[in-house]
Structure formats: structure tokens, C-alpha cells
Design a protein that fits this description.
Elements (H helix, E strand, L loop, with lengths): L2 E3 L6 E3 L1 E4 L10 H13 L4 E3 L8 H13 L7 E6 L18 H15 L4 E6 L8 H13 L3 E6 L4 H13 L5 E4 L9 H6 L1 H6 L3 E4 L31 H4 L2 H17 L3 H11 L3 E6 L4 H8 L10 H11 L5
Parallel strand pairs: 3-4, 3-10, 4-5, 5-6, 6-7, 7-8, 8-9, 9-10
Antiparallel strand pairs: 1-2
Helix pairs in contact: 1-2, 1-11, 3-4, 4-5, 9-12
């Protein structure tokens, strides 16, 4: 396993990490989580990603139960969670969802700590931007959570470059804890934000990235070329909004063009896609997903392809996909 600094922070995270979105509670119980997290850990993974909203809080509970059973030294692993969506999606309490105001963030933090059974969470993210709360209020609240010892680092997810810079400058001006990482979607078909919009932030403020959906929700595995298979992520009713993209003819044609490239390198389509994301030096960690131990093991195999991604190979990959990138 390779380890990279989280932007300019001193913390080092594994190049490949394991996330819980979609799988925990929906497809994976605590016992299965233990098996997969143990396999990842044995392969060198030290970063495990979560969010308050995943499975309505159950994902955090399952990860917390798994961590208790695994009993790893706390210094040996990094855990994250994210705030914004809230848990009471159908309730009338306006400060419990779709917000980053101080009241919500303070209570959401305590809820996540309780569900995960931890005294602190290493990385906390603002899961989406909140246009209705002043950025300064959000920055102060996130900084205070770190000062209180409930979190160690904070960052954003799917924020614009302008908003990230504004948050960083507010923190700089008022001597508060600055955002150090962003969690954007990044894969062969979704790359412009990471490769263009954020370009200045890497050098100017030392932004680190923990990227999600490296396989484009499974599209880049090739399994959706003949429709949506039973048992796949696309077959889940909660993921119905993804289906049109997963069976997109143009993208699946591009995926077919990647197959011989992966074969030439001695890997699978999924491993090629993961290695491509990890090849970007601005990516601190690539968040992978899995519902079975063998998927965890297969994902770790992507590391063997990193040194094989020569400029010539990268050019072949771009020729097949860049025209479809967003």
C-alpha cells in the first residue's frame, strides 16, 4: 500500500480506502463489515469513509460495531463522516436537514460520535454547500468541533472552488482551523472539476482530495453493458436514479474500448479505472466500495497497475473516454 498526505496536512491516508455508501445496512451487516474492513486493513488500508445520511444513520452504527469488534489501536485507522442532509428527512424541524448552520452541526457531530462509538472522528466534511447559511458561520462551527477535540480535520464535499477558497480565507483571516480536503466525484467520465476547476487550489491552499465513485457507480466495471444485472447497485430501488447513466450506450461503448487496455496491463476494467484515479498526484485517497471480501481484494489489485500507466497508456485511455467526460 502507498500512503499520501492529506493535502498539506501531516496526516497520511492509504491511497485506496474503503467507503460504506450504498452497501452498509442495505447490503452489508456488521459481521460482513468486519470481514471486509479486516481484509482492507490487512491490505494496508487505514481510511474508512462514512456519512451521517448513509442508510439513515445505520451505516455509522454498523461501522462503529465493526470497529469495536476489530479492536484496532485507535492510532492505526482514520474514520470520516459527513454532515448536511440530516436524518429526519420527513420531519418538520427546519434545522435538522439540508443545512450547515451551527445548531445542526453541533448536534449532528454528537449523533455521529454516539452511533460510531468513538470519542473523536478524524475527518469531518460538509457534505454539500448550504446557500442559506453564511459560510463564516459554517467555518466557525467546523473549526470549533476541532477545537473541542471531537474531530481532527475538516473539509468539504462537492463544493465549488470559489466556496472552498472563501471558507479557507475566512479561516485564515480569523485564525480558525482551515478546510484541508475536498471529497469530489472523480472518475474517467467525471473529471473536469478535479482537473480544471480546482487546479489553483492545489498550489494556493494545499487542497487534498478523497475522491468518491471511481468506478462511476459500477459502470466502469463493464457489468452494465447488457443491462442492469440482478444484485447490482443499479438494481437497488434506492439507486434507481443512477440507472439511465449506467446503461448509457456511448459510455458503455467507451468501456468496451478500455477492456483490451486493462488486459494488456494484466488487470481488470475496475482495477484500471481505480489505478487511473490514483495516478492523479492531487488525489490523497481513492474511496472504493465493496459488498463482498473478494471485491475488496480485487480492488487492492489496482495498485499493481499504477506504475504501468505510462504516458502512452494514459493517452489510449483518454482517447476512449475523454470526449464523454463531464
Amino acid at each position: 500500500m502507498q500512503y499520501r498526505r492529506l493535502g498539506r496536512a501531516g496526516l497520511r491516508v492509504s491511497t485506496l480506502s474503503l467507503g460504506s455508501w450504498v452497501t452498509y445496512h442495505n447490503q452489508v451487516d456488521a459481521g460482513q463489515a468486519v470481514e471486509m474492513m479486516a481484509a482492507a486493513y490487512d491490505g494496508g488500508v487505514n481510511f474508512f469513509d462514512n456519512a451521517e445520511v448513509y442508510a439513515g444513520g445505520r451505516s455509522e452504527e454498523i461501522m462503529g460495531q465493526a470497529l469495536k469488534m476489530l479492536a484496532w489501536p485507535r492510532l492505526n485507522y482514520v474514520v470520516s463522516t459527513k454532515f448536511y442532509w440530516g436524518l429526519d428527512r420527513k420531519g418538520d424541524a427546519v434545522n435538522r436537514k439540508d443545512t450547515l448552520n451551527r445548531k445542526y452541526l453541533m448536534q449532528a457531530m454528537d449523533g455521529s460520535l454516539k452511533r460510531m462509538g468513538l470519542d473523536h472522528i478524524d475527518l469531518i466534511y460538509c457534505h454539500r454547500p448550504d446557500p442559506h447559511t453564511p459560510i463564516e458561520e459554517t467555518v466557525r462551527a467546523m473549526s470549533d468541533l476541532i477545537t473541542q477535540g471531537k474531530a481532527l480535520y475538516w473539509g468539504t464535499s462537492e463544493w465549488s472552488a470559489a466556496d472552498i477558497r472563501a471558507a479557507w480565507e475566512i479561516a485564515e483571516r480569523h485564525h480558525l482551523h482551515k478546510p484541508v480536503m475536498e471529497q469530489p466525484e472523480y472518475n474517467l467520465f467525471h473529471r473536469l472539476r478535479v482537473e480544471q476547476e480546482y487546479t489553483r487550489l492545489y498550489e494556493d491552499i494545499g487542497l487534498g482530495l478523497t475522491t468518491w465513485s471511481p468506478l462511476a457507480s459500477g459502470l466502469l466495471t463493464g457489468k452494465y453493458r447488457s443491462g442492469v444485472p440482478d444484485g447490482s447497485r443499479g438494481a437497488l430501488e434506492s439507486m434507481a436514479f443512477l440507472r439511465d447513466g449506467l446503461i448509457d450506450p456511448a459510455k458503455n461503448t467507451a468501456v468496451a474500448k478500455l477492456e483490451p487496455i486493462a488486459k494488456d496491463l494484466g488487470g481488470t476494467l475496475a482495477q484500471l479505472a481505480l489505478a487511473w484515479v490514483a495516478k492523479n498526484p492531487h488525489v490523497s485517497s481513492v474511496i472504493t466500495g465493496a459488498s463482498r471480501v473478494d471485491q475488496v481484494t480485487a480492488n487492492l489489485g489496482a495498485l499493481a497497475l499504477l506504475d504501468k500507466l505510462t504516458p502512452e497508456v494514459m493517452g489510449r485511455i483518454d482517447a476512449a473516454t475523454v470526449a464523454l467526460a463531464e
